[in-house]
Amino acid sequence: MTICHTCGNYYENTFRIIKDGSSYEFDSFECAIHALAPICEHCGCRVIGHGVQDDANIFCSAHCASAAGVTGLMDHTPAELIVGAT
């Protein structure tokens, strides 16, 4: 039994995530996301999908990146740019 890094719950089925050399124990994915997922530079939500990135700035979507003044980022890669796409 271990204690969740985020909520402090003492739980028998925690799991460990190692990130950047640090180890964390969590009792749920919700707690892991709250502790480790990056935050969108524009809207402040947790980025739990792929998101988009411009240098060190991470955004939850191209819409948020655009609203923050970043141009040229897309949420989805057009099919013609994917090798082997028909």
Descriptive report:
- The chain is of the alpha+beta class.
- It folds into 2 domains: 36 residues, no CATH class; 49 residues, no CATH class.
- Helices cover 16% and strands 23% of the residues.
- A two-stranded antiparallel sheet has the order 1-2. A two-stranded antiparallel sheet has the order 3-4. A two-stranded antiparallel ribbon has the order 5-6.
- Strand 1 and strand 2 form a beta hairpin.
- The longest helix has 8 residues.
- The chain is elongated.
- The protein starts with a strand and ends in a 19-residue tail after the last helix.
Characterize this entry briefly.
With 86 residues, the protein is of the alpha+beta class. It has 2 helices and 6 strands; from the N terminus they run ββββαββα.
Write the layout of secondary structure elements.
Blueprint: E1 2-3, E2 10-11, E3 15-19, E4 22-26, H1 29-36, E5 52-54, E6 57-59, H2 62-67
Antiparallel strand pairs: 1-2, 3-4, 5-6
What is the spatial order of strands in the main beta sheet?
A: 1-2
The H-and-E topology, N to C, reads as EEEEHEEH
What's the total number of strands?
A: 6
Alpha carbon gyration radius: 17 Å
Estimate the global geometry from the Cα principal axes: elongated
List keywords for this structure.
86 residues; 23% strand; two-stranded antiparallel ribbon; 2 helices; 2 domains; 6 strands; alpha+beta
